[in-house]
Amino acid sequence: MASASPARHAGLCFLLLTALLLTKESAWAQQSPTASAEIQLATAVDAISEGRSTEAVPVLTDILSRDPACCNNEHGAAAYWLGKALTEQGRHEKARQVWRSGVEAMHAADWLDIRLADAFLSSLTPALLRAERPLALKTYESIIYSVDDAGSEGERDIYRRYAAEMEPLLSDESLNQLIEQPRDASPETWTFADSAGAFARAWWSRLDPIPSTETNERMEEHVARSIHARQAYRCPHRASGLDDRGITYIRFGEPRRTKVIDYEDSEFREEVFRFGVAVAPREFPDNELWRYDSLADVGYYIFTENNRQCYESSGALDLLPSRLYQNRGRTDRAQNISYSALMALRYIFSELALFHPDFSPVYSEISRYATYQESRASAAEVRDKLSAEQETNQKIYTQSESETVGTGLGQTRTVSSSSNFGIDSPVGFVRTMATTIRQQDHATRYQRSKDMPRHATDLLAASAALPVSVRTPRFLNSDGSTRVEVYWGVQTSHLRGAQPAVRPSMLMFSAVQYDAEHESTDRVDRRHFVDIESLNGNTIFASSPISFDSRSWLVHLGLEWSQFEVRSTTSGSTRLGKRLRQTTIRADSLRPIRATPDRLAMSDLRAMVSPSGTPADAIAFPFSTIGPDTPLLLYFELYHLAYDEDDQTRYTISYEVEAETQGGWTRLFGDDVRKTSTEAEYTTSARRTEEYIYLDLTQLRQEKNQDVRVTVRATDTVTGVSASRTTEFELVGSDALK
């Protein structure tokens, strides 16, 4: 190729010099339409970083019009940067649409830009989520399943935020498979385990309550909770981005009851904010009280706002400014401040006692003392009007010491104590109560950590749409594991509903076993075709039992039933129609049968009915209501019977039947309880036995329904060790059978 002439070189240099003198804004205008998208992306990112987002928008729009999935290793997805530029211009809805389109292109191209995925999820609100659930769930999966792929520190911060939302849900063992640090390490220091993504995938899979569907409903619920929490309970300085309310919401969902203690009550303000009491209304923290009664007795939380405008989990004492109860001396000023603390405590605990009964004892003690102070103050007013002789007699009578504290018109008050009766002054009482409340707060936190699950789902909330009866007796396997049997049934009238005749239906039953950490360990699915018209008049439908084996120290079961209409198609096949009824039941906190080989153990009682009254034709009976003519058998097993010197085992079995009538108003004057008992002794060569007890319920027949409790006790006569089990029924009275 011939070289260019000097004149032409001069012209070229002039053009280059001119280009160098151009601003970056005009440089974009000089770029060829065929310029590399990567160069354009880099230039746009620089502009956004320098605060010139307006100039970056058309360039990024142009890039995405040619390649919706444009992305490079250095800057990531162009869609993320366009959405960021639009956000800086206040065009939030347009930014969300850009991020949504970018995420769709990302999934279609099968790659992940963590900032783009996070931006899309962070842009959602609970209202928007309703239309975006499938895409939101897929995007969350792409993030949490790739936590071990973090590159830059910025990417790791995003992954840490999602991991911080999962952390409270995980057991210590599970958390160790996600991060390399212990639970008490600061999330800012977290590094992820090599197989963290694979662990997250397996963990979420175990939590899926209905594996037959394509959607993981438990993960979907978690994403919905996360999005709500990010909107309602933000705390930017935390790794999770959430305050303690947000974390609690992610764990358990919507609280069953909430309450706020406000301090606008006029009597409260008059009694607390006095001259000489250096406390301001703003020192009483904003707060929220949450209750989860269905999870545990101690399932309540107190949240108070800290100085960073984030709510943190607190105790009852945190509702009171510390300067009110940290008085050390017994001066007039200290007594005055402590009296204000007393009045504040009375008001706060009156609200807490209405919120949860655990606070009632402390409130009662505070209220009694406050009433004493008020009564002594009233007595002092009367005493001021008495003669000196009468005053002396009054002091002897009251046996108390009183003094006036505070200064100013209407600002003084009388405080009293009595050494004879052990009644302390306000300073001493408030100090003692602060210690008591602090101890109760500590005990509540400890008990809550033991009793509350790491997380709970509303997907297994009970429903009365299909009344199902279920029993879950436990038995000991020969290998030492515990077998939990699940047998259930439903009355055909409930399957039929209000219609005189119904189509055949399909009962779909799913049972999920969870370990002590509420993580799924096993599941069983069954389908039952039910044609009510061909049940030959049977009033109940009962399924054959299923069972789960476990060695866990605690087992939970989630049971679900759905009844679907079965329709016939024109081709002669059948398909499922609409869902008719559904219910879910939880069987929580099932502990294992003791497997200690040198000590007698006993299974639960399995209720069975037998037309012949013998085990030969007995079937499991799950219902809690039974008629007096029903032949009832109780089956149970004994384990670890001890041998005597003749290599024989000897034991006794006794049972007691208690029947209590439901007599309405007569119960106010005494319970109508009848008891019968029987005992028998047995000798065998086996350490493990199977036992049956036949109950003739006709002997208990009465007009009214009765609550029947059967207690079976077994005693190893070689060792003297006993074990017992109890089952209960409602025995139908003759009036109900008419």
Automatic annotation (TrEMBL):
Keywords: Signal. The keyword tRNA processing does not apply. Residues 1-29 form the signal peptide. Residues 389-417 are annotated as: Disordered. InterPro entries: GWxTD_dom (IPR030959), TPR-like_helical_dom_sf (IPR011990). NCBIfam families: GWxTD_dom. This is GWxTD domain-containing protein. It comes from Longibacter salinarum.
